Each structure stands twice: as C-alpha cells, then as structure tokens.
C-alpha cells in the first residue's frame, strides 16, 4: 500500500474544529461506555494501570517476526480454548472504536446507534462466523493501546484485533496469527508545516505518539540518532487518535503512527497530511494467549480462506478511499 496514493475526498467529518469535538467525544465515550454491538459487555477489566507481565528484552535471534505463527495444519484447531469459547457462546475481542476505517463508530450511520465497523471489525465477524456459526456472537471491548497485551494475559479477551503490529518483543508476551495487513510508521503533520518526514526537519518539534505503540518505541530508540535530539517526544497519549486531537489543538507539531492509520486521519481532516515515506515495514496480526495453540491455528485457517476474497472486499469497502488500490494481503510463511 503506497501512502502517496492518499485521497482526500473523504471529508464528511468536517473541519478541524468539528473533528476535534468528534474526537474528544469519542475519547470520553471510550472511557465511560462499554462497546456494544452484537452483545454488550461493560468495561475492559483494565484500570489504565495495566502493565504487561513477563516483559522481556527483544530476542536477538528473532528474525521476521511476522513469519513465526503456527501453521494451521500443525496440530488441533478445536482444543480446550475453542471449546471454552463455544461454551460461553461468544467471542470476546479487544478492539479500537476510534480508528477511522479500521475500528470506529460512524456518527452518520443510519443505524439507531452507531455500530462498530471497519477493516478490523470485518475480520472479527469472520472469525466469529467460523468458530460459533454466527458473525454477531461477539462481545467487543474497547481497550487503549497500552492495554492490548495485559488484556490478553489477564484473560479479559480471547484475542485482540486492533491494528496491532507483530514484533519480536511482543512475541515474548503473546502469540500472533499470520499477518493480515502490511503498513509502516509515518509522520503526520499540518499541510503548512515545514516538516518533510522522519528526518532533521523534526528538530525542535513536539511529536505525539501512543503509549505502548511501536511509534513510541521507535522515537525513543532514534532520538539523537535518526531524528534530532532537540525533538520533543514527551507527549504520549493512551489512544493514537488522541494525537490527532493534540495536533488539531496546536499542542503538538507532528504525529508518528502507522501509515495506514495516519492516512485515515488525513482523510478525516484535510488540513493534515502524510510527510515523507514510511520508514519501517510492519505487519498487523491477531494477538492471542501464547498457550492458546488451537485458537492460533484456527484463526490462521480462517485467514487462509479470508484472504481469497473477503480480504479484498473489506479493503475496497473501508481502505481503498484513503490508501488507493491494494497489492493484496501480505504473503504468509509459518514457523
């Protein structure tokens, strides 16, 4: 997906002021209300203080983390984890409700109450259909970026489908499916800004990122090396969309996040744009408990079938307007 193909035709969300209000309200609702769609379940089981347990340094021998998932045919796909999900009668999934076109609520929806929709949400429904025979047997739980891994480890959710990048450090804490989307980190800034990308033009600039994100980790690693030491990376927020609000309010000069999310945010607010090219290669995966091997294999089998047609259909519905034509789902290898 080439972010230079960004289209700014999706402007139905209004200007900067209106978008700031929408984003602020969305953030408030994310804190106060349970995510409800097929079924309702209050809260995340998280108090904002969650820290991933068992954190470890990056494994030096980890190469191509996106290729480390279990093959669908490497063992059972209907073991204890799947049986537990069937017994409770629903799939509990950690998602975002503020990522435009990935997992969000459309205030202009014709439904009586705006339901969750987007690229990630389509995949969740496909998983529920396969495991439970009903795409709507899902309990969605809105979780902030930093709570994704703790929510899985505590058992608050069966999985997280939330634009979550597969990397070596996370593989020490949770398991991932094979990749279902490819993106890369990128800079988002006002069109009038003199920022040109992830480079020296960030000198003295205030940069926002989300807590627990690859963007924050990259900024911390690169400060004084790839980007100038004078760059201020101290603005860290619970959810990535909060960075767009900070940018709109003039509290920061730039945002660093996944290029796919940045493109969607530029579609929401035509006064901002992507600056420069993606400077990483990253892959989204479905995150699950490390010992849920039957669920991991089952999800990977679902993805085999999903990639044949439904992936492209979902991409065309949600992402083609901001990212342009796709190259199709990323290639898959298993460990």
Total number of beta strands? 15
**Shape assignment:** globular
Major β-sheet annotation = 5 strands, mixed
Count of runs of 4 or more consecutive helical residues:
11
Class inferred from helices and paired strands: alpha/beta
Helix content: 25-40%
Mean pLDDT: 85
- Low-pLDDT stretches are 1-59
Work out the radius of gyration.
19 Å
Q: Order of helices and strands, N to C? A: HHEEEEHEHEHEEEEHEHEHEEEHHH
The largest beta-sheet arranges its strands as: 11-10-12-9-13
Strand content: 15-25%
* N-to-C CA distance: 25 Å
Strands, helices and their partners?
Layout: H1 16-32, H2 80-88, E1 91-95, E2 98-99, E3 103-105, E4 116-117, H3 119-132, E5 138-142, H4 148-154, E6 159-160, H5 168-171, E7 175-176, E8 181-183, E9 185-190, E10 206-210, H6 214-222, E11 232-237, H7 241-248, E12 254-258, H8 259-268, E13 272-275, E14 282-284, E15 287-288, H9 293-306, H10 310-318, H11 320-323
Parallel strand pairs: 1-5, 1-6, 10-11, 10-12
Antiparallel strand pairs: 2-3, 3-4, 7-15, 8-14, 9-12, 9-13
Helix pairs in contact: 1-7, 3-9
Give your account of this protein's structure.
The chain contains 11 helices and 15 strands. With 335 residues, the chain is an alpha/beta fold. A 5-stranded mixed sheet has the order 11-10-12-9-13, with helices on both faces. The protein has a 3-stranded parallel sheet with strand order 5-1-6, with helices on both faces. Helix 6 links the parallel strand 10 and strand 11. 47% of the residues are buried. The N terminus is likely disordered.
């Amino acid at each position: 997906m080439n972010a230079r193909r960004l289209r700014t035709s999706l402007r139905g969300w209004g200007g900067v002021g209106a978008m700031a209000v929408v984003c602020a309200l969305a953030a408030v609702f994310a804190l106060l209300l349970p995510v409800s769609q097929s079924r309702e379940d209050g809260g995340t089981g998280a108090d904002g203080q969650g820290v991933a347990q068992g954190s470890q340094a990056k494994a030096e021998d980890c190469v191509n983390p996106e290729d480390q998932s279990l093959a669908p045919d490497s063992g059972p796909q209907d073991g204890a984890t799947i049986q537990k999900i069937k017994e409770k009668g629903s799939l509990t999934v950690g998602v975002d409700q503020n990522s435009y076109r990935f997992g969000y609520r459309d205030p202009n929806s014709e439904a009586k109450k705006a339901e969750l929709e987007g690229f990630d949400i389509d995949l969740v429904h496909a998983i529920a259909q396969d495991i439970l025979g009903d795409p709507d047997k899902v309990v969605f739980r809105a979780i902030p970026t930093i709570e994704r891994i703790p929510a899985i480890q505590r058992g608050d959710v069966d999985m997280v489908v939330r634009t979550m990048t597969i990397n070596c450090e996370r593989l020490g804490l949770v398991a991932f499916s094979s990749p279902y989307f490819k993106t890369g980190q990128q800079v988002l800034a006002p069109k009038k800004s003199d920022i040109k990308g992830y480079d020296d033009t960030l000198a003295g600039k205030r940069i926002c990122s989300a807590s627990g994100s690859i963007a924050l980790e990259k900024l911390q690693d690169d400060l004084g090396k790839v980007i100038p030491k004078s760059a201020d990376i101290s603005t860290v927020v619970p959810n990535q969309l909060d960075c767009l609000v900070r940018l709109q309010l003039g509290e920061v000069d730039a945002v660093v996040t996944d290029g796919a999310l940045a493109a969607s945010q530029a579609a929401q607010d035509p006064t901002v744009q992507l600056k420069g090219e993606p400077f990483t290669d990253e892959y989204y995966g479905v995150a699950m408990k490390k010992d849920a091997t039957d669920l991991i294999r089952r999800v990977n089998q679902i993805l085999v079938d999903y990639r044949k047609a439904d992936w492209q259909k979902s991409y065309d519905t949600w992402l083609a307007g901001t990212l342009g034509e796709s190259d199709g789902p990323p290639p898959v290898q298993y460990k």
